From TrEMBL:
<comment type="similarity">
    <text>Belongs to the FKBP-type PPIase family.</text>
</comment>
<feature type="domain" description="PPIase FKBP-type">
    <location>
        <begin position="143"/>
        <end position="229"/>
    </location>
</feature>
<dbReference type="Pfam" id="PF00254">
    <property type="entry name" value="FKBP_C"/>
</dbReference>
<dbReference type="InterPro" id="IPR046357">
    <property type="entry name" value="PPIase_dom_sf"/>
</dbReference>
<keyword id="KW-0697">Rotamase</keyword>
<protein>
    <recommendedName>
        <fullName>Peptidyl-prolyl cis-trans isomerase</fullName>
        <ecNumber>5.2.1.8</ecNumber>
    </recommendedName>
</protein>
<dbReference type="GO" id="GO:0006457">
    <property type="term" value="P:protein folding"/>
</dbReference>
<keyword id="KW-0413">Isomerase</keyword>
<dbReference type="InterPro" id="IPR000774">
    <property type="entry name" value="PPIase_FKBP_N"/>
</dbReference>
<dbReference type="InterPro" id="IPR001179">
    <property type="entry name" value="PPIase_FKBP_dom"/>
</dbReference>
<keyword id="KW-0732">Signal</keyword>
<dbReference type="GO" id="GO:0003755">
    <property type="term" value="F:peptidyl-prolyl cis-trans isomerase activity"/>
</dbReference>
<dbReference type="Pfam" id="PF01346">
    <property type="entry name" value="FKBP_N"/>
</dbReference>
<dbReference type="InterPro" id="IPR036944">
    <property type="entry name" value="PPIase_FKBP_N_sf"/>
</dbReference>
């Protein structure tokens, strides 16, 4: 969702809403009141996803003026300049966050690669064998579908996704996941459990898939290969 049609705002962070003096004055006694509140909720939830500092009272004034046909309180040139300033500020903040996350990941992997039992591949992917299969099992090809259990964290240990916690294994084609997974899975045998340390460029890079994963983050996964469903 874009905050304004004129200016896309793409940064993540905390949404700061200044104002909201009408909070205790609103009555929700009939369907018109309730539907109106629902419209406000939808607008607020959409704006919250863009994570920009906004003044709630000013938003309400803009909506009120638009619905009533009142004269605009700010000319278009001033509005456009304000949108542009917000965009520039958000881009600066996001660039700083991205750079910091990239440095944290690089530092982590540099130290992690020195640990006993950690193997670093030419791509930069690192792995550690937690449990080796009792017997050499099937290794998946890129076109195969696998069943795995996994537990994903940031380098600080913060959990962002876990099939283990959900209690249900995940199934997916090997070549339809992040590059670090695609590379590692083809080296594993059914029954293996590895810990993967994935550089940002083999994970999601600058495009974060979730607020739980900052852009340019190195990721850590415990992956257990349960089964391979070979193509054909």
């Amino acid at each position: 969702m874009k905050l304004f049609k004129q200016v896309p705002v793409l940064a993540m962070g905390a949404l700061i809403l200044v104002g909201c003096s009408q909070e205790n004055e609103v009555k929700l006694e009939n369907y018109v009141d309730q539907a109106s509140y629902g419209v406000g909720l939808n607008i607020g939830e959409s704006l919250a996803r863009d994570a920009v500092e906004l003044n709630v009272d000013a938003i309400a004034a803009g909506i009120s003026d638009a619905l009533s046909g009142a004269e605009k309180r700010i000319d278009q040139e001033t509005l456009q300049a304000a949108f542009e300033t917000i965009r520039e500020e958000q881009e600066r903040k996001q660039a700083a966050l991205n750079d910091a996350a990239a440095q944290v990941g690089a530092d982590f992997l540099a130290e992690n690669g020195k640990k006993e039992g950690v193997t670093t591949l030419e791509s930069g992917l690192q792995y550690e064998v937690i449990t080796a299969a009792a017997e050499a099992g099937a290794k998946p090809a890129a076109t195969d579908t696998v069943s795995v259990h996994y537990h994903g964290t940031l380098t600080d240990g913060s959990v962002f996704d876990s099939s283990v916690e959900r209690g249900t294994p995940a199934e997916f084609p090997v070549n339809r996941v992040i590059a670090g997974w695609t590379e590692a899975l083809q080296l594993m045998s059914v029954g293996d459990k590895w810990k993967l340390y994935i550089p940002a460029d083999l994970a999601y890079g600058a495009q974060s898939p979730s607020p739980k994963i900052p852009a340019n983050s190195a990721l850590v996964f415990e992956v257990e290969l349960l089964d391979v469903k070979q193509e054909g």
